[in-house]
Write a structure and sequence with these properties.
Layout (H helix, E strand, L loop, with lengths): L6 H10 L1 H10 L9 H13 L2 H10 L2 E4 L21 E4 L4 H5 L2 E5 L6 H16 L3 E4 L5 H11 L4 E5 L12 H10 L1 E4 L9 H14 L2 E4 L8 H10 L3 E4 L10 H8 L3 E2 L3 H8 L21 H9 L6 E2 H8 L3 H13 L3 E4 L2 E4 L1 H11 L3
Parallel strand pairs: 3-4, 3-7, 4-5, 5-6, 7-8, 8-9
Antiparallel strand pairs: 1-2, 2-6, 10-12, 11-12
Helix pairs in contact: 1-2, 2-3, 6-7, 6-12, 7-8, 9-10, 13-14, 13-15, 14-15
């Protein structure tokens, strides 16, 4: 009877209870507050046409169930939506929606994505799935589909949140994908079986994706992309909002870059996502360069090694002065360095070995 996200209807449900609101709508006499007479008449007409038994039978045929607030499977984080909370969710698939939602991340983005975007979305979803996270998306073409496939390909968990009935695959080209998701994961939606999607239902669907998950990652999005509404809903709800940067010359990255200029966090892989949404202590390791032989030296030996010139030889007194130590200590460190293959002696002078020169250049990196 009510459209998804109808806050006036949600308030009526909270005040009167579902059965009380159904009774008022079917009686159709006194309009409730917050609605015009024309809309009240339309809702009353919907109430007369509603057939819950038919909807439940259609859901059973496709293996779906109806989950409402108060059920053990209801994800309590959806309550953060207040009066815009779904009245209930149709759920197709075996796993528990509540348990899966506890450790879930949304990966969303443009429908007309680039190869770069599809590659990043699939890889990110696969990495998240391999680390035990549930990937949630909207089942659309482009980034959504790539994210679902990435999670499925990694043998992981994924949830598709639809803007239509869970028995009605949309887009039709994803019918097989939705079948795979229902077998390996969950397909959910607010609308009863048989209902079709509309532009407004897609936008309102996004609030469920945002509320259901710990955070939302936008991979590619133009400035007017619907996926940005998911990110902004996540931010309003206090969830983490993240974006994957793309080429500055790509129109499909302008929306993501705008998010990053606001309050979103830049992420490039699953480890960075989990560092934000995961439990305390799930930190991404700081990337380091390759370990070089000179990295294993003690500090005093390293200073003496650094005191040698890149080319030619130097006497002990010169090396000691550069290393800020005594000549005796410099000699001791030089023989230690010679045993490790870093330096060699030529008469009264010392110089770096070819191996040490190559190692120093590798450690310096590109200019």
């Amino acid at each position: 009877m009510l459209e998804p996200g109808d806050e006036a209807g949600g308030r009526w449900v909270r005040e009167l209870g579902p059965a009380g609101l159904v009774r008022r709508l079917r009686e159709g006499d006194r309009p409730l507050g917050g609605v015009r007479a024309e809309r009240w008449a339309g809702l009353c007409a919907r109430a007369q046409a509603a057939d819950p038994a038919r909807d439940l039978a259609a859901a059973a045929e496709t293996g779906a169930r109806f989950v409402v607030p108060g059920d053990t499977e209801w994800p309590s984080q959806l309550d953060d939506l207040g009066d815009a909370r779904p009245i209930g969710l149709w759920v197709r698939g075996r796993p528990s929606l509540r348990m899966w939602a506890l450790r879930s991340v949304a990966v969303v983005g443009a429908r007309a994505c680039t190869e770069y975007g599809a590659h990043v979305a699939a890889g990110l979803a696969a990495e998240l799935a391999e680390r035990g996270w549930v990937v949630v998306s909207g089942g659309a073409y482009g980034i959504d589909g790539a994210a679902h496939r990435g999670a499925l390909g990694a043998g992981g968990a994924t949830v598709a949140v639809l803007a239509c009935g869970v028995d009605r695959p949309y887009p039709r080209g994803h019918a097989r994908l939705f079948g795979r998701i229902a077998e390996q994961g969950l397909v959910i939606g607010e609308l009863p079986p048989g209902d079709h999607p509309t532009p407004s239902r897609f936008v309102l669907r996004n609030r469920v994706i945002a509320a259901l998950t710990r955070g939302t990652v936008v991979v590619e999005a133009a400035r007017r992309s619907g996926s940005l509404s998911t990110a902004r809903a996540a931010r309003r709800l206090g969830r983490f909002t993240m974006g994957v940067p793309g080429p500055v010359t790509s129109g499909l990255s302008t929306g993501v870059h705008q998010l990053l200029r606001e309050e979103a966090v830049l992420v490039t892989d699953a480890a960075e996502v989990i560092e934000l949404v995961g439990a305390m202590g799930e930190l991404k390791e700081t990337p380091e360069g390759p370990l070089l032989p000179r990295d294993l030296l003690r500090a005093d030996a390293g200073r003496v090694l650094d005191a040698l010139p890149a080319r030619g030889t130097a006497r002990v007194a010169e090396i000691a002065r550069e290393a800020a130590t005594t000549p005796d200590d410099a000699v001791a460190r030089l023989y230690e360095l010679r045993s490790l293959g870093h330096v060699e002696r030529h008469g009264d002078g010392w110089q770096l070995t070819r191996h040490a020169v190559i190692s120093a250049r590798a450690g310096a990196g590109p200019p």
